[in-house]
Design brief:
Mean pLDDT: 78
Number of strands: 11
Largest sheet: 4 strands, antiparallel
Order of helices and strands: HHEEEEEEEEHHHHEHHEEH
Strand content: 15-25%
Helix content: 40-55%
Length: about 375
């Protein structure tokens, strides 16, 4: 029980005593006995009325302000507002001073065409029009409260009293929402302009509310609804855009595949060129080697005319000392004449690089039958 309630109870008890005293006086008068009982009733009635009036006045001079409240005190003599009283027990002069209690806890004001979980809705959604004339329905919520600092509660009391929700919050939010959405095209609102619009409204609403002694906690754009025709056109445009993007991706993929094929073909061509160059270089090297071998053979033949005969003899068996060559060959070789010559030295010439004539078989001297 608060102190004001306690004082009120005492005041009520005093008035009860007053009624009891009056009752005693009436009973004594009706019985024709106005002695002690009558005098006691008068005294009880006087004490009761004094207690009742006194504690009634005192209870009106004591105000208890809770933690979520603020008291605006009005002076009835000079018509001025005194500094607001914060939470706790406060004393005022009854009749001279009058207190008005305001709730400073966070409040919510919502405007929407739909509700969820039994949510309180104060008004219907805001109807706005975009820059290109499209009708838009906007669901919004405002979280706010009375600013308890300074003389802000007095400003609220002077200008709005308890009408600030419907007379200030509602029309101000509706006007700001309409103005903000009228600066954007519907396609931009449907796209990424929602955050920018919400920020613009929040900044302007915060300024307006601070001028009226209120504080803005948050402004929420809950839902934006376009007309069915516009929503269908946006959906078709998005589908076309998605198809165009898919076509672009397919073209890009084909280009990548063509580029990969070109790179592979280029690699194969470079490899073929490298192989051809390698084969050509190999042929050149072999030709140079053969030419060098022939040059060496020529030098050796020039220096040793009997070299070719020696090479021929070397191809014969190891036990052959004398060979008879075909009749059309002018050479008759004596192996001992070569081996006896100590000045002769056979050069080391690769046999694969020396081409010798193939011997022709000698005609048999044996008469053939029938000759």
């Amino acid at each position: 029980m608060g102190i004001s309630s306690f004082l009120g109870a005492i005041s009520l008890l005093g008035f009860v005593l007053f009624l009891v005293g009056v009752g005693m006086i009436v009973v004594a008068s009706s019985q024709g006995r106005e002695g002690n009982r009558g005098r006691g009733g008068v005294a009880l009635a006087i004490i009761g009325v004094i207690i009742g009036l006194l504690f009634s006045v005192i209870s009106q001079g004591v105000i208890v302000v809770e933690a979520t409240q603020v008291a605006v005190v009005f002076n009835t003599l000079n018509g001025n507002l005194e500094p607001p009283r914060r939470s706790g027990t406060n004393i005022i002069v009854p009749i001279v001073q009058q207190a008005f209690i305001y709730d400073i806890s966070q409040q919510q004001f919502s405007m929407s065409d739909r509700t969820t979980n039994n949510e309180r809705v104060d008004d219907a959604a805001v109807v706005a029009r975009s820059q290109d004339g499209q009708e838009i329905r906007v669901d919004v919520s405002v979280l706010f409260g009375i600013d308890p600092s300074g003389n802000n509660p007095n400003i609220v009391h002077q200008r709005w009293q308890n009408r600030y929700r419907n007379d200030f919050i509602q029309p101000t939010v509706r006007g700001l929402v309409r103005d903000a959405f009228s600066g954007y095209r519907a396609s931009d609102i449907y796209g990424g302009a929602r955050d920018a619009i919400a920020n613009n409204i929040t900044g302007e609403l915060q300024t307006r509310m601070s001028e009226e002694g209120l504080i803005l906690t948050d402004f929420v754009l809950r839902n934006i609804t376009f007309s069915d025709e516009f929503s269908s056109s946006i959906e078709r445009a998005q589908i076309a855009q998605q198809e165009a993007e898919q076509a672009r991706l397919r073209v890009q993929q084909r280009q990548q595949e063509a580029e990969q094929a070109r790179v592979v073909a280029q690699g194969e061509r470079d490899a073929a060129i490298a192989r051809a160059e390698g084969e050509a270089q190999s042929i050149i090297l072999r030709a140079q080697a053969e030419a060098e071998a022939l040059r060496l053979v020529s030098e050796q033949l020039a220096a040793n005319p009997l070299l070719i005969q020696y090479q021929y003899i070397q191809t014969l068996g190891p036990n052959v000392s004398l060979a008879i060559i075909p009749s059309n060959s002018p050479f008759l070789f004596d192996l001992e004449s070569f081996t006896a010559n100590t000045d002769f030295t056979a050069p080391a010439v690769p046999e694969s690089n020396l081409v010798l004539p193939t011997p022709t078989p000698l005609a048999s001297s044996t008469p053939q039958p029938g000759s």
